[in-house]
Amino acid sequence: MTFEDYTKPVKILVTGATGQVGSSIVQRSEDDSFFSVVGLGPKELDITSEEQIHEKLDLYLPDYVINCAGYNGVDAAQHEHERCYAVNTAGVDKLARACGDLSIPMVHISSDFVFDGHYESGYREDDEVSPLGVYGDSKWLGEEALRQVLPQHIILRVSWVFSETGNNFVTRTLERARSQLEIRAVSDRIGCPTAASDVARVVLAMLKQIHNGAEAWGTYHYCGGEVSNRYSFCKEIISLAMGYEELAMEKLTAVSASQYAKEVQRPGSSVLECKKLLNTFGIHQRPWRSDLSEVIRFHYNLRKQAVES
Ligand SMILES: NC(=O)c1ccc[n+]([C@@H]2O[C@H](COP(=O)([O-])OP(=O)(O)OC[C@H]3O[C@@H](n4cnc5c(N)ncnc54)[C@H](OP(=O)(O)O)[C@@H]3O)[C@@H](O)[C@H]2O)c1
Questions:
Q1: Are 14 and 38 in contact (CB under 8 A)?
Q2: CB atoms inside a 10 Å sphere around CB 204
Q3: In terms of residue numbers, what domain contains 124?
């Protein structure tokens, strides 16, 4: 390798780049001279299309592909099997095969929904999977396709991802608190909220080490530090939001998951044990509380800008 090879930025191609995690990875890597990033949203690269995948990989020839594209409608997936499997399983398979043809390693974001959530003390990477619905099943099969097709991969399972925009628990809670007098939140579902920006930090830190020679391919877990439940997380979101606006909501009520029926049962525990990531890469969990206050601040800055423009 020449000096230029060592100092050249590492080229990453991010799919699903308009989503929470994808846009955070693009943003973070743009500020890091180690990387040069191409972020492609679904309009530029639809991972269900082999033709588009080959076209974009040939055009950009990245050193790594980071797949953040996903179909995430947990309830809708029960009625939209085909679309869900097309993106989360077949799409991952197509992307992995194309990466394999060009010897491009791939990072893929997966989910705690591969587990049924009965195990409360934290899922390890090799714990038995048992998805509760179509979405979880499609994510598991996507993982399996990647494992079979491309040995040079990282699968990072994350849980309870939030950011300042898009459709996530934080933005949905704020919408409800603006329009409803009472909010009900489930207190017997536990998990660790995880900022999309934090997932980006972890993915890029892993890639730096991989690029510098760490032979650490495989499956890892990551979630924010401190176990919470939906009710407590909701309470924290509301209490931070009250510093920025007057909310319509007057009452927050804790309910059990059985009282808050959703079409698809969610894992009772989404807690992921992150020791493998720490032991292999030295990456620590970041407390989600500090990320949440930043996310709420960004959210209100964006609202202010939208009103002013
Ligand atoms: N959100 C969570 O709590 C959570 C938890 C665990 C794991 N994950 C996993 O993390 C990954 C990223 O999630 P996220 O929260 O960033 O989701 P997100 O905000 O919904 O982003 C997903 C992105 O994928 C795009 N997409 C959908 N179909 C596509 C296709 N056929 N080709 C290319 N792009 C496509 C979406 O575009 P459109 O918006 O236009 O459809 C969106 O830009 C997903 O794989 C998800 O399963 C998320």
A1: yes
A2: 21
A3: 3-168+194-227+265-288
CA torsion angle 235 239 240 242 (round to 10): 140
C-alpha distances (whole Å) from 169 to each of 86, 111, 238, 282, 292 are 25, 16, 12, 29, 11
Q: CATH number for the domain including 27?
A: 3.40.50.720
User: Which residue's alpha carbon is nearest to atom 46 within ligand 1?
Assistant: 70
The residue among 19, 4, 11 whose CA lies nearest residue 200 is 19
Please state, in angstroms and rounded to a whole number, the distance separating the CA atoms of residues 156 and 283: 13
39 in any annotated domain: yes
Q: What is the pLDDT of residue 183?
A: 94
Tokens 């099969």, residue? 141
Q: Which of 13, 15, 21 to mutate to test the pocket of ligand 1 (most atoms within 8 A of CB)?
A: 21
Task: Give the DSSP letter of residue 287.
Answer: B
Does ligand 1 lie within 6 Å of residue 29's CB atom? no
Q: To 5 degrees, how large is the angle CA 102–CA 103–CA 109?
A: 105
Model pLDDT, residue 7 = 77
* C-alpha separations of 8 from 212, 240, 253 in Å: 13, 42, 54
For residue 113, tell me if it sits in a domain. yes
Residue 184 lies in a domain: no
For residue 163, what pLDDT band results from cuts at 50, 70 and 90?
very high
What tens digit of pLDDT does each residue of 201-251 get?
999 999 999 999 999 999 999 999 999 999 999 999 999 999 999 999 999
Q: How many domains does the chain have?
A: 1
In a domain, 309, yes or no: no
List pLDDT tens digits, range 109-149. 999 999 999 988 899 999 999 999 999 999 999 999 999 99
Ligand 1 mutation target, pool 13, 14, 15, 20, most atoms within 8 A of CB: 20
Q: Determine the distance separating the centroid of ligand 1 and the alpha carbon of 72, expressed in angstroms.
A: 6
Residue 17 alpha carbon to ligand 1 centre in Å: 9
